[in-house]
Write a structure and sequence with these properties.
By secondary structure, the chain is an alpha+beta fold. Helix content is 49%, strand content 14%. The N terminus is likely disordered.
Length: 394
């Protein structure tokens, strides 16, 4: 069986290297599925092709999420929340947990909120332009944090505190800082869930707190775990994709100019930037029974990592995958998932990203880096820790 001995896909430093596209492409040509000996998680099957990645993501009956959806928990460890969180359940339980959140993230609900999101994005960009020199990672984070506060109906008196805690949880420079932020966020969510279970409002916390499955309320701990997961996913995906997308456009000023001239539609451009950045580098599954994938025998209990970044650059699925084609169509990328676990917040994430990019294009003539870009060290949400720039207004 082939192993990825020359390239450790679980090494966070790998994904910031300029030669990574060539290395991953060579691995994919050798085989669609490799066995990787990881430092933290033991042997893991790495799926690199689009076709086989889609097969794994679609087939929840064979490739389960219950034992973990991300690498890093450690070999043999089952994460807290297994069978209790949307991300860590399989159908039909997954559908039950997802149901109370669906109305808040539906295309119709997002369309109703799109004008407010666009206005908020414009205000955030205007403030950044007035400052002149900013860290774009911090600047773009303000939008998903504010939108999430609206979604949860965080009281005005608490918003500064919640944003500050989330800043630490999501923007902390070390794992210890980020963990400390979550340790403050979770008790706050717990308190709000208990309040709204007795006095519900028209918001996501209240819906989750009062939702019944089989006539029974979800345990409060499960509600908090799912809310924390929604907040993390909602903020991280938008933050990293926005920062990485803008960094991509800075590196390719011809694409920036095409967007400013209106030569490419925002919807198609967003999908291509989602494909290109693929900030959620991988998704983990565990085989629930013996099976076969690309001629490899996968045993029950084996971990299978779909490397979304690689699948989204597979030449068998995408024409000229190493080029950024903002008008690419069709564009069936896997950046937001596939199958039962397709991102519940996808419509909202696209609305936020569209609002941010539109505001930047309308108000900023050029984005000039003023210092080195710093990539984070994460294979979960790969992105930037720092992106210092000078914004020149139009």
């Amino acid at each position: 069986m082939p192993t990825t001995t020359a390239v450790d896909l679980t090494d966070p430093d790998l994904w910031a290297r300029p030669d990574t596209p060539a290395l991953v492409a060579e691995l994919r040509r050798e085989s669609a599925v490799h066995l990787t000996d990881t430092v933290d998680d033991g042997p893991v099957w790495s799926v690199l092709s689009y076709r086989h990645s889609a097969e794994v993501l679609r087939n929840a009956a064979v490739y389960s999420s219950e034992q973990g959806s991300l690498l890093g928990a450690g070999e043999g460890n089952v994460p807290v929340g297994s069978g209790r969180m949307m991300a860590l359940t399989d159908p039909p339980r997954h559908r039950e947990l997802r149901a109370p959140a669906n109305p808040f993230f539906s295309p119709g609900a997002v369309r109703g909120a799109s004008r407010g999101i666009a206005e908020l994005a414009a205000s955030i960009v205007e403030q950044a332009v007035e400052q002149g020199e900013v860290d774009l990672v911090d600047a773009v984070s303000a939008l998903p944090l504010s939108v999430m506060c609206d979604l949860l109906d965080v009281p005005e008196a608490d918003r500064d505190m919640v944003v500050r805690v989330c800043d630490v949880a999501f923007l902390g420079r070390t794992p210890e800082e980020r963990r400390a932020g979550h340790q403050q966020l979770i008790p706050y969510l717990l308190h709000q869930v208990m309040l709204r279970r007795s006095d519900p409002r028209d918001d996501l916390i209240s819906m989750m707190a009062t939702y019944r499955v089989g006539g029974k309320l979800l345990p409060i701990e499960d509600v908090v775990l799912n809310l924390d997961n929604i907040v993390v996913g909602g903020v991280q995906t938008v933050r990293h994709t926005a920062a990485m997308g803008l960094h991509t456009l800075v590196q390719h000023p011809d694409l920036w100019r095409r967007l400013q001239r209106g030569e490419v539609g925002m919807d198609s451009a967003l999908d291509e930037l989602l494909r290109w950045t693929s900030v959620g580098l991988h998704t983990l599954r565990t085989a629930s029974r013996d099976t076969e994938l690309d001629g490899r025998t996968i045993r029950r209990g084996d971990r299978v990592a779909v490397w979304v970044w690689s699948a989204n650059r597979d030449p068998e699925a995408f024409e000229r995958p190493e080029e950024i084609l903002l008008d690419r169509a069709p564009n069936k990328h896997l950046a937001l998932g596939l199958g039962a676990h397709y991102c519940v917040g996808a419509p909202l994430a696209k609305a936020e990203l569209g609002g941010l990019f539109t505001a930047m294009l309308e108000r900023v003539a050029t984005i000039e880096p003023t210092g080195p870009v710093t990539h984070n060290r994460s294979i979960i949400n790969f992105g930037l820790d720092r992106f210092p720039v000078r914004l020149t207004p139009r």
